[in-house]
Amino acid sequence: MSPSTSATSTPVRRPGGRSARVQEAVHTALGRLMGETTRDKITLRQVAERAGVNPTSVYRRWGDIDTLMEEVAVAALTRDGDVIPDHGDLTADLNDWAGIIAEDITRPQRVRYLRAMVSARDLQVDNCPCMDIRQQQAELMINRAIERGEPAPTSQQVLDHVVSPLYHRVTFGLPVDRDYAVRLVSDVRAMASALTNAGRREH
């Protein structure tokens, strides 16, 4: 069995041609500016100047810096072609996957993107692309486990008890590492097992 497979999530439609070049230049410019200063000091005009793009085009496409910040953060935190572990055992898959997430989102640039995305939102939203993609990845591993006859948590349980705590701690500057991610996986596996056993006793 292959140790990893690509996620089966539907790829986000991306612009082509000149539009794609503008997007790449703007995303790159914002990333560099975030490495040099704080989010509250960055403006769309600064981004446009650094990207070598007409400011009018940037304002017309993104409207405000918060919209651009969120787009760049989502792109950075949910990269196309993420490889999903496939070790033939759900615990091993989840441990590897959660560890990869922990190592990725604690990189300084990723931390800045994550905090920028959070600060860009002042209202409740119906969905979050980062979490949507993580849920699709979890479902892939869980469905394989169920096909093998393994007891498994739901993808929502994995989001609530593994992924969300990782993002939460990074956002608030609390320590996160692979060992912590593995402990979260152990907790959600134990919880799922307890719920399964309780259901069997009721029947």
TrEMBL record:
<feature type="compositionally biased region" description="Polar residues">
    <location>
        <begin position="1"/>
        <end position="11"/>
    </location>
</feature>
<protein>
    <submittedName>
        <fullName>DNA-binding transcriptional regulator, AcrR family</fullName>
    </submittedName>
</protein>
<dbReference type="InterPro" id="IPR001647">
    <property type="entry name" value="HTH_TetR"/>
</dbReference>
<dbReference type="InterPro" id="IPR011075">
    <property type="entry name" value="TetR_C"/>
</dbReference>
<feature type="region of interest" description="Disordered">
    <location>
        <begin position="1"/>
        <end position="21"/>
    </location>
</feature>
<dbReference type="Pfam" id="PF00440">
    <property type="entry name" value="TetR_N"/>
</dbReference>
<dbReference type="Pfam" id="PF16859">
    <property type="entry name" value="TetR_C_11"/>
</dbReference>
<dbReference type="InterPro" id="IPR036271">
    <property type="entry name" value="Tet_transcr_reg_TetR-rel_C_sf"/>
</dbReference>
<dbReference type="GO" id="GO:0003677">
    <property type="term" value="F:DNA binding"/>
</dbReference>
<keyword id="KW-0238">DNA-binding</keyword>
<feature type="domain" description="HTH tetR-type">
    <location>
        <begin position="20"/>
        <end position="80"/>
    </location>
</feature>
<keyword id="KW-0804">Transcription</keyword>
<dbReference type="InterPro" id="IPR009057">
    <property type="entry name" value="Homeodomain-like_sf"/>
</dbReference>
<feature type="DNA-binding region" description="H-T-H motif">
    <location>
        <begin position="43"/>
        <end position="62"/>
    </location>
</feature>
<keyword id="KW-0805">Transcription regulation</keyword>
